[in-house]
Structures are given as structure tokens and as C-alpha cells.
Design brief:
single chain, alpha+beta, Alpha-Beta Plaits, 5-stranded mixed beta sheet, 4 helices, 16% strand
Length: 230
């Protein structure tokens, strides 16, 4: 019994000594860690400040960009001034005849598909009539007024394919509502033509705008006509 008690006492004494040594090592490690932090933290902070300054310098390098923007705006402004100073000529306006330019003459030849058969004995007009009447005016019946834009009048002997090709070319150039009319199917029109036209439009201004657009897209002979339906 005495030997067993002595052995237990020695074991407890050894365990207490071991725990005391571990506490001492832990305290020493904490002190060393604090010293390392005290030395290294300022260095890390200084490096971070230097990197931030470098990044700021690098980011600020492309500063001359606004100069290019200013140059582009200046060039655009000059182009706008040039367009305003040199406006395109109005295809429907009048202009003076320049020196050496021949005076306008009277066009001859061709048949007007919008002139009725009763007008055959009269001289052929140089332009189509300003008003096209479809139907028969009657008392108490008000006609519907609109405007169309005529692109071309193709003689029927050339076949409908020629008129269809003109209509397709206009559609491909962004013109909507293009149609082909055979004048022989209308009693008030001169027979023998395929008429390629756009419309109708409620106002003359709208029709003039479409005609101007057609002129700019290669249909320089396009013109408007008032259309009255009964």
C-alpha cells in the first residue's frame, strides 16, 4: 500500500510539472508572436500603401482620352455646319436657269394611261392630269379624296413582268405599299398600261414626302396625283 501511494504521488507531481512547462511555453510563444506582429504589421501597411499609389498612377495614365472626344465632336460639328450650308436641292421646287443651260422644252411622245378614251381628239398633255377620278359622280354622293405616287407606266405589250420588276425593286429599296394596276380594268383610265404606284395617302404633304424618298432611291420620274373615288 505504501509503495502504491508513493507511485501515485510521483505521477501527480510529474503531471503538474508537465502542465506548468506547457503554460510557460504558451506564454513564451504568445510573446514572440506579439513581437513579430509589432515588427511586420507596419511593413505590410507600407507595402499596401505603395501598391495603392502605383495602381492609382496606372489608372490615371489614360487621361488624354477627352482630347479625342473633343476632336470627334468638333469634326461632327463641322460636318453638320457643312450640311446646313449645302442643303440638297428640292426636287419639287423651282430654280433659276444657269448660264449656258438650255431652256426647258415641251416633251412629246408617249401615251397617258390616266386620260380617258374621250380625250383622244385633244392634244396629248405633257404631264398627267392633276386629278384622277375613279367612278361616276352622282348627286348626294361625296367622293373620297386621296393622293397616290406613280412610279412608272409600262405598256401592256411589254408584259406584266416589267411592271412587277419595277415594283420589286422599289420594295427592295425600302418602299412599302407598292402595287401594280392594269389600266384596262378601269373605264376612266386609258387602256393598255400597267401602272406601278404607291398609296393612297390622305394628304398631299404625305404623298410629296414619299415622292421625294423615291427620287432619292433611284426613281427620279415618280410624281403625285390626286385620286378621287366615287
Amino acid at each position: 500500500m505504501s509503495a502504491s501511494r508513493g507511485r501515485r504521488r510521483r505521477e501527480r507531481t510529474a503531471a503538474a510539472a508537465k502542465a506548468k512547462r506547457q503554460k510557460i511555453f504558451a506564454i513564451i510563444g504568445a510573446v514572440l508572436f506579439a513581437i513579430v506582429l509589432f515588427i511586420q504589421v507596419p511593413r505590410i501597411l507600407n507595402r499596401g500603401g505603395g501598391s495603392s499609389a502605383t495602381a492609382t498612377d496606372t489608372t490615371a495614365a489614360p487621361a488624354p482620352t477627352p482630347v479625342a472626344t473633343t476632336t470627334t465632336k468638333s469634326a461632327t460639328s463641322k460636318q453638320l455646319k457643312s450640311l446646313i450650308a449645302n442643303r440638297p436641292e428640292d426636287p419639287f421646287g423651282t430654280r433659276a436657269i444657269g448660264d449656258g443651260e438650255p431652256p426647258p422644252g415641251t416633251a412629246t411622245g408617249g401615251r397617258d394611261p390616266f386620260v380617258g378614251a374621250g380625250a383622244e381628239a385633244q392634244p396629248t398633255p405633257t404631264r398627267l392630269p392633276a386629278r384622277i377620278v375613279i367612278g361616276t359622280p352622282r348627286a348626294g354622293k361625296t367622293g373620297t379624296v386621296g393622293y397616290i405616287v406613280v412610279l412608272a407606266s409600262v405598256p401592256t405589250r411589254q408584259g406584266p413582268r416589267s411592271a412587277d420588276q419595277i415594283a420589286a425593286r422599289a420594295r427592295n429599296r425600302g418602299i412599302d405599299g407598292v402595287a401594280v394596276l392594269q389600266s384596262s380594268t378601269r373605264k376612266s383610265l386609258r387602256a393598255g398600261y400597267y401602272v406601278v404606284y404607291v398609296g393612297s395617302y390622305k394628304t398631299q404633304g404625305a404623298a410629296l414626302g414619299v415622292a421625294a424618298r423615291l427620287h432619292s432611291r433611284g426613281f427620279g420620274d415618280a410624281y403625285i396625283r390626286e385620286l378621287v373615288r366615287f
